[in-house]
Write a structure and sequence with these properties.
Blueprint: H1 3-6, H2 22-33, H3 37-46, H4 51-78, H5 86-94, H6 96-125, H7 138-156, H8 159-187, H9 190-194, E1 203-204, E2 207-208, H10 212-226, H11 232-235, H12 243-268, H13 274-278, H14 284-293, H15 295-329, H16 347-364, H17 368-379, H18 383-399, H19 410-430, H20 432-455, H21 463-484
Antiparallel strand pairs: 1-2
Helix pairs in contact: 2-8, 2-12, 2-15, 3-10, 3-12, 4-10, 4-12, 4-18, 4-19, 5-6, 5-18, 6-7, 6-15, 6-16, 6-17, 6-18, 6-20, 7-16, 8-12, 8-14, 8-15, 14-15, 15-16, 18-19, 20-21
């Protein structure tokens, strides 16, 4: 007997009067990808690689992420009936429990990231108001909490309203980045850029950069995180005016952000010596602009960081709620997460998400170092959803599903294969500690899955899913033992 036969599913969410268009979907992609990372990029990259190895690394990263963008574009077109992006593709390809882990991991990563954004936002405000310095003072946490619930109220007004505000903020956050690029282009000194293009003589704090391969690897570890958010439009596929806009927004957003990252990164090498850039405090873009135009430049970038973080918060709060709503409709998350208010906003998911953010904000008052480690480790949970999406495209191409007679599959198979290899590398680059900690999160989070299946009187697992759950449980036990022995730290 099918799951639908067993019990009537909960009511589907009320369809918005006007779906999200291309501009709104693109703004969600750009808004979720651009947080604070681009403003700190110059010093982080300068500490890892010279311009030559940097170019090689960006080419590899750009190709890998472009293939992943094409995966989301292709799946949106070939599987328009699958909603939820990274969740929907994981579930459609590999079953309910894998779909649950994809959604749950994505959700934990997203709300943990929002805690980081709130702390960083008020740490940046600390450049103007000393009481907020560091972002974890009592007054900073108080104001962060007030801002959180203001954004909560805004999102409860409906996804359309929040998406409109996100579009405006995304435009505003790009202005200081463009300003930096223009000033950097005018002040660019080719001699500084080419002085040691392969980094053979550069040393950072007395340590050489190493050979070209080492530099490429080092900078690519940084790029693992700068493109998170590329899947934003796919998560909102259910609310899009047109499914074709989902794929277009993903590719347009990715290419736009990639262009900004490349310009900011490479132009900075023509403004100061590489070793000096590596030693700049974050956000290093502010220090570079101050070096070019004076103190107003630094303050301008600080304001840009604040606006950028505010936009990222709006985008990720929306994504957090949406990624929990759809699994609840499919009976792999508890039913209360599927409840929408009169504005069509996923109220249950929003209350749970922002409640978790609030709890972690309070926790930072007592253990800010533990919070930092948890955010870093939880962020790795977003990488497996990328892997499942790429694997799903490969699966479709191998099976020939959605392909008509004589229709070529080679292009999609190659794109999906490259994206899958890159996604596997991202997980590998994260390290074993991330995988173990991720398994611990998945194991604890499985309570929600069991809750959802029992409240609908549905079977917990298929035989294959029992095997997967056993692996997750074993890895979680391994993680607990490693933590107890001091071999793995989450705080």
């Amino acid at each position: 007997m099918s799951e639908i036969d067993l019990k009537t599913p909960p009511a589907q969410p009320s369809a918005p009067q006007a779906g999200l268009g291309l501009a709104a979907l693109t703004a969600i992609v750009v808004g979720s990808m651009i947080g604070s990372g681009i403003f700190a990029l110059p010093s982080q990259m300068a500490a890892s690689a010279a311009p030559g190895p940097l170019l090689i690394g960006w080419i590899i990263t750009g190709v890998g992420m472009l293939m992943l963008a094409f995966v989301f574009q292709t799946l949106a077109q070939r599987k328009p009936e699958v909603d939820g992006g990274v969740y929907g593709y994981a579930k459609a390809g590999f079953g309910n429990y894998i779909g649950f882990t994809s959604a749950f991991g994505y959700w934990v990563s997203a709300w943990m990231g929002n805690v980081a954004y709130l702390v960083l936002l008020f740490a940046t405000v600390g450049n103007f108001i000393p009481a907020f310095e560091g972002g974890t003072t009592k007054i900073a946490i108080l104001f962060a909490s007030v801002l959180l619930w203001i954004l909560h109220a805004l999102t409860l007004r409906g996804i359309q309203t929040a998406a409109f505000v996100n579009t405006l903020v995304t435009i505003a956050k790009v202005v200081p980045i463009f300003t930096f690029i223009v000033i950097a282009a005018v002040g660019f000194k080719a001699g500084l850029f080419s002085a040691d293009i392969w980094g053979k003589a550069v040393s950072i704090d007395g340590v050489s950069l190493g050979d070209t391969l080492h530099q490429v690897t080092a900078m690519m570890l940084i790029t693992v995180w700068v493109f998170i958010g590329i899947e934003g439009a796919a998560v909102y596929s259910k609310r899009a005016k047109s499914r074709s806009d989902v794929g277009r927004a993903t590719v347009i957003g990715f290419l736009g952000v990639l262009a900004l990252l490349l310009l900011v990164n490479f132009l900075s090498y023509g403004l100061m010596k590489q070793a000096e850039i590596a030693g700049l405090p974050d956000p290093s873009m502010a220090a570079l602009l101050k070096n070019q135009v004076g103190s107003w430049g630094a303050n301008f970038i600080y304001v840009g960081v604040i606006v950028s973080l505010l936009g990222a918060l709006i985008a990720w709060i929306m994504l957090c709620a949406e990624i929990m709503l759809l699994p609840a409709l499919d009976h792999v998350m508890p039913e209360f997460l599927a409840k929408e208010n009169s504005h069509g906003a996923p109220a249950g998911a929003l209350w749970l998400t922002n409640g978790c953010i609030q709890a972690m904000l309070i926790w930072t008052l007592f253990n800010d170092s533990t919070y930092t480690t948890l955010v870093l480790l939880a962020t790795s949970l977003i990488l497996l959803p990328y892997l499942w999406s790429a694997a799903y495209q490969v699966l479709l191409a191998v099976r020939g599903e959605t392909y008509g007679n004589g229709e070529g599959r080679t292009r999609d198979l190659v794109i999906g294969g490259i994206a899958l290899v890159y996604a596997i590398w991202l997980v590998y680059a994260g390290g074993v500690e991330y995988l173990l900690t991720g398994a611990l999160f998945y194991f604890v989070g499985s309570i929600l899955y069991v809750w959802a299946r029992k409240e609908r009187k549905l079977p917990l697992f298929t035989p294959a899913e029992w095997a997967i759950f056993a692996v997750v449980a074993a890895a979680a036990v391994w993680a607990i033992i490693a933590i107890r022995n001091g071999d793995l730290s989450i705080g």
